[in-house]
Design goal:
Beta-Lactamase; 2 domains; DNA-binding; Arc Repressor Mutant, subunit A; alpha+beta; about 240 residues; homodimer
DNA sequence: TTTATACTCCCCAATTCTGGGGAGAGGGCC
DNA sequence: GGCCCTCTCCCCAGAATTGGGGAGTATAAA
């Protein structure tokens, strides 16, 4: 049994967020880095995190609404693949100030973050952070990227278990016509245009939209489209 | 250099979709399974696939619009974690007929599919398929799940390189107010409600919505919200 | 066979959204 | 200091969407 497997086993024993917390500490020691952080946004947009950052830094981060300008958050939100912090856009004044503040609160200057996404807009970031020069960090990444990737997924699996109510709504199923209707609306078609595309009367189209709205528990059409999109029921 | 690294190297040499195709064949032989498939939907909703399925089966699949009812596609679309095909919902008549048709065209009865998602609605499936009994398949999964996960990500990285035009639009940046406006609309608020939440006049809110619409190149509000959502600019 | 879903069509009136236009104050960037 | 972007407010009339309601046929599940 190798070290990675032992780490994963430790993680799998976690029964709550504190357990994840303990795992990040274990990982930090294993990789001999300064910090390991797992940050997660669930399908209701609620955020939580587990990591080795000092509580002062976490509080300061939330207090100052750094989420809004943190290039790691913003950059990873648009990305697909793991990212070395050095590749991100730190050009804005606010970003540089944020970085300075972070290093002054114990955050290392190097970071590697793996973004992961779920079907309902869930979004998770798994980060390793350390203080060293660029070359050392590159070496660290190239030798550990795969393990970190596996661990990121394991964290995700665990976080998913903690999702209260097992995802709440069990994903309403829309009929093919309803899905088509939602898709056309998401593409910017008006009802008349969408009805025309589907070769049905606009009245009929409306019935589908309303049915979809009810199934999705949406307050209006835009809401319904947003939910269908966020649930992965349709793709634009 | 272990076998996994050699496989990844081969994959990284791929310069086009045919290269990916060759890699799937290499993987099939390495894992000694019947099929390996990488299926990808890019940000414009265009699909493509690389895999070892027979061309007859691929044609038949597309022709019969099996995408609509394939439980693997549908199931993975809603999921976060890799899935053993046995866990999917094969209860509907259509699904069972599809499965029968698949096995008659060379598809093995066992499968393991890893879903991956990108920030703009990109969606990829990496699948290993074989014909054996449940126990053998479980054993295969438990010993190869991690390698498959790593490979899935490598495929993704490669597929991303092939995205023409480097993602086309470089993600328009919306102002904080515009983002808030889009977010409230995505949550189902009417303009009046959203304006109230933001403590601004409805007229002002409208300006933000229109600005966002223009930046996003959207045809109407619903379209704008859909784009903002699909671009990962906002989360519901 | 019965039940359920999905699909298609139609009515109405109230509400909301959409298309432009203009204008002033404040902030950050070069 | 000048420029650009953001934020805030306002006008109007026409077009579109939304809230319910009902009702028939066909196909699929129990």
């Amino acid at each position: 049994m190798d070290a990675l497997e032992r780490l994963i086993e430790g993680l799998q024993r976690a029964e709550n967020v504190e357990g994840l917390q303990a795992s990040t500490e274990q990982l930090r020691d294993h990789f001999a880095v300064r910090h390991v952080i797992y940050h997660w946004v669930n399908s209701r947009g609620e955020r939580f995190g587990a990591g080795t950052y000092s509580s002062q830094w976490v509080d300061r981060y939330l207090e100052r609404d750094y989420l809004r300008l943190d290039p790691v958050i913003f950059g990873c939100f648009q990305r697909f693949t793991p990212v070395n912090w050095k590749e991100l856009d730190w050009s804005s004044k606010a970003a540089r100030a944020f970085f300075k503040d972070a290093t002054e609160h114990g955050v290392g200057n190097q970071g590697y973050t793996i973004p992961l996404r779920g079907p309902k807009g869930q979004f998770a970031l798994f980060t390793a952070n350390d203080s060293c020069d660029d070359e050392q960090w590159e070496a660290f990444i190239s030798s550990n990227a795969r393990d970190l990737m596996i661990l990121a997924h394991e964290f995700n699996k665990k976080a998913l278990e903690f999702e209260t109510g097992a995802d709440g709504a069990p994903a309403p199923s829309l009929s093919p016509r309803e899905l088509s209707a939602m898709t056309y609306l998401a593409k910017g078609f008006s009802r008349a245009q969408a009805a025309n595309e589907l070769q049905i009367s606009e009245h009929t189209l409306r019935v589908y939209i309303e049915a979809a709205r009810h199934k999705l528990g949406a307050l209006n059409t835009t809401h319904a489209v947003a939910r269908a999109l966020a649930s992965g029921l349709i793709v634009v």
